[in-house]
Specification:
Blueprint: H1 9-32, H2 36-63, H3 68-95, H4 101-108, H5 110-116, H6 118-129
Helix pairs in contact: 1-2, 1-5, 1-6, 2-3, 2-4
Length: about 130
């Protein structure tokens, strides 16, 4: 028996969609601007979206093994942690010139776009990645 744990297909599809969104957004962005801070902001948002998706999956998976009251508390706490990290990163970007916070938000929205494209992404994952 293999020790390798199979990746959750829905999580894989969501992360795939987030990164595909980032690539398409980057291509469009490069047509209009070569500003490095825009691209940095975009990819910070994409990475945060993927990390947030993994954390959300982990949180829900963990919460489902708990009693109802404890599950609600665990999942709620983890939601707050995700939003806190997002707000902290946003404020750091707002108060530094490292990367553009608007494009960071655009990158983070890749999670939403990916969720909407899930049926299409599922077909790609099944055919291309055999997941």
């Amino acid at each position: 028996m293999s020790m390798k744990k199979k990746i959750d297909p829905t999580l894989f599809d969501l992360c795939l969609g987030i990164f595909l969104y980032g690539i398409v957004f980057q291509i469009v962005l490069l047509l209009f601007s070569r500003e490095v801070s825009y691209s940095l902001g975009l990819w910070i948002g994409v990475v945060l979206a993927a990390a947030g998706s993994v954390h959300m999956w982990w949180s829900l998976d963990r919460g489902m093994d708990q009693a109802s009251k404890q599950a609600a508390k665990t999942i709620g706490t983890n939601n707050l942690i995700r939003y806190f990290v997002l707000v902290v990163v946003m404020f750091v970007l707002i108060y530094t010139d490292f990367a553009n916070p608007i494009f960071m938000f655009c990158g983070y929205m890749g999670m939403k776009i990916s969720a909407y494209l899930n049926p299409w992404l599922r077909k790609i994952s099944e055919k291309v990645f055999k997941i």
